[in-house]
Design goal:
By secondary structure, the chain is of the alpha/beta class. It has 15 helices and eleven strands.
Length: 383
């Protein structure tokens, strides 16, 4: 009698073809990333490309770690925006500040982490691990922000999304005048109406310059309540199908299906990760609106879960908070790889395997989404 094959042996047989000079990146991921964190990176690429990029999915991205100074804004994040693969963003202010260097024509250089920082300080060279740039880059970028935030349209209280949209317009214009193209994440987000929020706007050189101008009577101020409510409204609109792109006939991209899905692409962790995920507890726990959590969770991180920090918190733990829909948990992927390795691979894989999506231009629809949030909150018993 033949031995019964265990159900645990139903997985794909490990028998890859040899890598050749003609192997494409997509083939490398699909055929050679078979185990350990290579397999998690393959699962991340496939989850993002095959499920998160469906027309009725709204993709939120959170960014931590010094990714833009390393050029990943230009090489990866801007191509994702242009392809319609990222719909809204939570970022550290530092990533947006350093992104601006590229948009206004300032230079960053490859360096070495082994050089004495005392020597670098004497040479007026600033170091981000193995990235070097002249101290004047900081001063020139500070001057750029101080100049624009003195303008009339900035003299009010606003959400960080509005601030970044207005600032992005100036960066985009500076790029045009300098003959640069697709260098700034802020500029691309302005062009494609991708809202960018910062969960801690004072924690960067942008916030420091806003504070300096306040000493001179500048009226610009950030309202965190606007950020909390606008981001919750974006997610609620995504889940209700209100953020889906309409066809020219006025119908939703998936025919009669009204509901939509919300996806979280998390690079690193920290405050932006929580700000992206807390939208669901804001909707359910605080506002009392019927919801179940985000549908897709994809995180690239080097943080361990056992230390109790948010950066390493698993999607399973997020379920207990209402942040992730428990029925969608099998689709969650945590990839324990440096973002500077994973992001270019995920980007190249998605661009090779998936057609561009129509941009959702969520920034232009914030008022509509806030109306939806207010209407559902009005019906809640949690008021």
């Amino acid at each position: 009698m033949a031995k019964r094959t265990s159900k645990f042996l139903e997985g794909r047989r490990i028998d890859p073809a040899p890598i050749t000079a003609n192997t494409t990146l997509a083939e490398l991921v699909d055929e050679s990333f078979l185990a350990y964190n290579g397999a998690r990176l393959r699962e991340a690429c496939q989850l993002f490309t095959l499920k998160m990029l469906e027309p009725d999915v709204t993709v939120g991205l959170s960014i931590t770690g010094a990714l833009t100074p390393a050029g990943l804004g230009t090489s990866a994040l801007i191509p994702l925006i242009k392809a319609g693969f990222v719909d809204w963003i939570i970022s550290t202010g530092a990533n947006l500040y350093h992104d601006t260097h590229f948009g206004i024509g300032l230079a960053m250089h490859q360096g070495s982490s082994q050089i004495s920082d005392i020597v670098l300080r004497a040479e007026e060279v600033v170091r981000i691990y193995d990235i070097f740039f002249d101290y004047s880059v900081l001063l020139d970028t500070d001057a750029f922000f101080r100049q624009i935030i003195a303008r009339k349209e900035f003299q009010k209280t606003m959400s960080t999304a509005e601030f970044h949209y207005l600032a992005g317009r100036y960066v985009h214009e500076r790029e045009r005048k300098l003959g640069l193209k697709d260098k700034s994440l802020l500029g691309a987000a302005y062009e494609y109406a991708v809202p960018i929020y910062t969960s801690s706007p004072g924690d960067s050189s942008i916030g420091m310059n806003v504070a300096a101008k306040a000493l001179q009577g500048n009226k610009l101020a950030f309202d965190p309540s606007l950020d909390v409510n606008e981001t919750a409204a974006i997610v609620l609109a995504a889940k209700r199908g209100a953020s889906n792109v309409k066809t020219r006939s006025g119908k939703k991209s998936r025919g009669k299906k009204a509901a939509g899905l919300s996806a979280c692409l998390i690079l690193g962790g920290g405050s932006p990760k929580n700000f992206l995920l807390q939208t669901e507890p804001q909707i359910q726990e605080v506002l009392g609106i019927d919801e179940r959590g985000h549908d897709y969770f994809l995180q690239v991180t080097d943080a361990r879960p056992d230390t109790g920090g948010l950066s390493g918190a698993t999607p399973g733990e997020a379920v207990s908070w209402g942040k992730v829909d428990p029925d969608r948990l099998p689709d969650a992927v945590v990839c324990y790889v440096d973002s500077t390795v994973a992001l270019p691979i995920i980007t190249a894989y998605a661009l090779a395997k998936h057609a561009a999506r129509e941009p959702k231009r969520l920034y232009d629809r914030r008022g509509q989404f806030m109306d939806l949030l207010r209407a559902e909150y009005k019906k809640s018993k949690r008021r």
